[in-house]
Amino acid sequence: MKYILIGPGNIARFHISAFNKIDSELIGILPRKGSSTVHKFCKEFDIKKVYLSIEEVLLEEENWDAAIVTCPTMQAVKYVKELSKLNKPVLVEKPVSHNVNELYEIKNLKNIMVGFNRRFYSNIIEFKEFVQNNNPTIFVNLPEVNINQEITDKKYIKLPYKIYDNSVHVFDILNYILGSIDWVNAVIMSDNKIESIIAHGIGRSGIPINLNICFNSSQNFLISATSKDQSLELMPLEVLRSFRGMDVNEPTSSRPFRIYKPNKIREVSVKISNNLKPGFYEQAKLFSEFCSGNIKNITPNLNDAYEAILSISNLEKLINSDRSIKIEK
Fold it and tell me: How many whole angstroms separate alpha carbon 50 and alpha carbon 26?
């Protein structure tokens, strides 16, 4: 497979390394206009062709089979629309757009795969099987960064950029495992800007979700599932732990109280393939199959990107509605 890359940057390096492992050839790149690092990038990966515009990319379509789009999010939809005219396979980095209406317009394009690489973690796959077999309660912790939070003139609170650009991985995983989520109520604590959000939701499968967002906190990303005496947790998403029952440490002379500790029965880290960033080798292989017309249920598409951003957008609407309680510090 010969492919071109739009938006050479840090994340692009991971894609190139993964595609090198499946005998694909990068034949050219389209950098942003005026890029000061493009020559260094070309030297690093021995790239001979630098396109000057998307129009040039389209005109030379006979030279390449597929495209990878890793440009900044704000330009991604523009490139997706242009590339879709050729009906050639495209892999575009998540989240594609932060604008739910913009994603709605393109969500039915069939030749586009979205780079939700964490879907392919061995840990996520095992976690999904547990959820499907046990009908548990889900708890999610997002200690996301809150920088330059935007509040409009009408005091409408917008969720921070990082929720849309980074935490979108978690919202996609929740949709992938549970189906779309109906956010039903929330409590917000603020001090000039939002400090925390506690929200409750219900997945399409009927499974309840407790979401905790404590911005800028010294915590880790967590998704856990609890059913009866057993629980699984992804913390961080690359590490899966299984617990069953409790260990009880009886009081001692120096500690006159019991200590209850979950009994950990297993811990496993995500499988690393070919010494690559987790999920990228599996993603590259799946995209290669996608290029051959083999589309699997795990293959993330533009509708999945739309559903993930829609879930975040609905959460944002909830915290601005009368179904939320706002606490000022």
Answer: 11
**Cβ atoms 213, 196 nearer than 8 A:** yes
| One pLDDT digit (tens) per residue for the chain, 329 residues | 999 999 998 999 999 999 999 989 999 999 988 888 899 999 999 999 999 999 999 999 999 999 999 999 999 999 999 999 999 999 999 999 999 999 999 999 999 999 999 999 999 999 999 999 999 999 999 999 887 655 555 678 889 889 999 999 999 999 999 989 999 999 999 877 788 999 999 998 899 999 999 999 999 999 999 999 999 999 999 999 999 999 999 999 999 999 999 999 999 999 998 899 999 999 999 999 999 888 787 899 999 999 999 999 999 999 999 999 988 87
In one-letter notation, the amino acid at residue 83 is L
Say if CB 28 and CB 51 are below 8 A apart.
yes
Rounded distance between C-alpha atoms, residue 195 and residue 101, angstroms: 28
Do residues 286 and 298 touch, judged by C-beta distance below 8 A? Answer: yes
pTM for this predicted structure: 0.93
Cβ atoms 89, 66 nearer than 8 A: yes
CA-to-CA distance for 89 and 96, rounded, in angstroms?
15
